[in-house]
Amino acid sequence: MKKNKNLPTGESGGPLMADVAALAGVAISTVSRALANPGRVNEKTRVKIAAAADKLGYTPNAMARSLRIGKSDIIMIVLPGSLQYGASQIIPQALQSINQALIQNGYTLLIANLDRDEISERHVLNLAFGGSVRGTIILSSELPEIGGRSLADAGLPIVSMLFDLSSASIPSVVTNDRQAMREATGELIALGHRSFLYIAGPAGNYHDVERYKGVVDALHDGGLTEQNVVRSGGRLSYQRGFQIGIEAAEDFDQLTTKPTAVIATEDDMAIAFISRIREKSWRVPEDLSIIGFDCAPVSEFCEPPLSSIRQPVEEMGALAAENLLRRLSDPAWNIPLKSVLPSAFVKRRSIGPVKAA
Amino acid sequence: MKKNKNLPTGESGGPLMADVAALAGVAISTVSRALANPGRVNEKTRVKIAAAADKLGYTPNAMARSLRIGKSDIIMIVLPGSLQYGASQIIPQALQSINQALIQNGYTLLIANLDRDEISERHVLNLAFGGSVRGTIILSSELPEIGGRSLADAGLPIVSMLFDLSSASIPSVVTNDRQAMREATGELIALGHRSFLYIAGPAGNYHDVERYKGVVDALHDGGLTEQNVVRSGGRLSYQRGFQIGIEAAEDFDQLTTKPTAVIATEDDMAIAFISRIREKSWRVPEDLSIIGFDCAPVSEFCEPPLSSIRQPVEEMGALAAENLLRRLSDPAWNIPLKSVLPSAFVKRRSIGPVKAA
DNA sequence: TTGTATGCGTTATCAT
DNA sequence: ATGATAACGCATACAA
Fold first, then answer.
1. pLDDT tens digit sequence for B160-182
2. Are A354 and A191 in contact (CB under 8 A)?
3. CA distance A46 to chain B (A)
4. A-B contacts (CB, under 8 Å)
5. Which run of H or of E encompasses A146?
């Protein structure tokens, strides 16, 4: 293993292509071909080179290769914030399926920002504009944008997931939040509920907006209006789902006429709400029906098991990754601007008929 | 913005240092200096160059830079498997704090694997040996190792976190699992419990082994022996924590003499166990006391709120990152082989005095 | 202080 | 089918 002498600094390097070439007794360019286009080299020399490479434990330098060919194999994932979405696990689940698709095609996953502060934003843009990255999957309603640079202008293929960014011309893979919530709320109405508490996510957040629209749709379906719903929350981010639920329970406590059903934008809120409301001797679902959203893994082990809406997270992740990969291998192909995969209501014991007055 | 003509393929490139140099009317090397060592260039030219760079929206090519200086700013994280550790969120929490420390120092976080299959292992090793990566943080008891290559031999600084790999000479940041579990079990003994069900993690897993040792320590402290504990589980990975809890509840059902306290290696197991056992009309803590481990965010909203052990995850992540960064900036510095940050027992309503017989 | 020239490790073009 | 050589974009030793 020849050491390269002029290494400016840092850890010592491993064997180079030149070392393999020397050992195999061929030119560097032949080694390059043998490794990349095995078909365009004599089988005998190919074997010889492969043996040499193996013996030396040669691993190609990815950066040199990327620099030369003008593209890398790194896919950047831009997250909306923390991975710690309480119990919901939506983001980790999404990452899981994305990663699987990427890695099987030889790509590498770079997590760009778990926080959403300025230093992280700048970081994202440097990566995007700095040539290190081949494409981007974004899970956020806002594109990183700072100092006149926007992620959209980095010349990289972008796909969005979970958030509908199609209006910004970014191909998006989403679920039918609105319709799913409409159906779920419909179930409550069918059970006789006429008065609701809606526990909201962050004000203006895409999911909160869509899901609340679904609630209103259902109200209209049932001949009701927004008058029938009281909103709570809207001040904190999804990362603080439990806290939102706690505050909603306090709000509920203040209400003079109590709703008979509670609809949370997300499971964490519902879970914390139930916990607090039960401490005040409210029974679920006898006194109060409650539904969440996301079908957090823990939701079926709650007391009572939480009715919720299951998103096809893995399918969305896989499709988003698939779309990006196809676009990368065929720049002429246009990713569908919007793909919608359906969610499903999962009925559990947290809802029941409205209490007879 | 001059287009570079010979781009082999792919997305069009942005402005280069040469473009900035041309616009500013200086040599490329001067631009390089102005951007990297602002001190070693005339202030006037520096301003001129900065203006030109800004106007063109210049972002340095990270790969070219890395190739030239022989080191990258990418830190690779090797995970034990899925991010979806049920509700515990330990891994995501760790990632969060690591990322924060890294990004503030100009480093980038690369998630090497979300699964732990062969293709991922190979991927990890290619990254490590391929020069793309500067250092590694591993959260796993097993070093990627395949085809004669081991992550340990990549010539990269490695730090471990959550898992004690100090016996393999890898600097590790861990918590005192054993002692923490000893204290928690001691609490149960102090409450009068003499007969236990231990819900085990994966057989041979570092955390399971350590924590169980702590249980045994406590038994001895109290003049008891392993005879006083029945083990359940040990067949599934932590990713299936809920499933382990379900099966433990079934095991419990079969026992002729019932333990009065249950100790789970991890919260998910405890949560699922409680859910199932309550369905069979067991009351917690009146009939049965239960503790978990990790203090999952959701644990305080369980019914009843779950007693558990809180690990200083963020502190561990920060320290691991800090150690790695210090090592990178000072190769002569030796990272402490083992750092132990203490966990703390959090007492909640899931435990109580043993029922009078 | 600034410019010139060389090389990082690889791929691709062009001869042979 | 293979080899010599020039680039990819940047940083640095050295010369001016």
1. 999 999 999 999 999 999 999 99
2. yes
3. 20
4. 221
5. strand A145-146
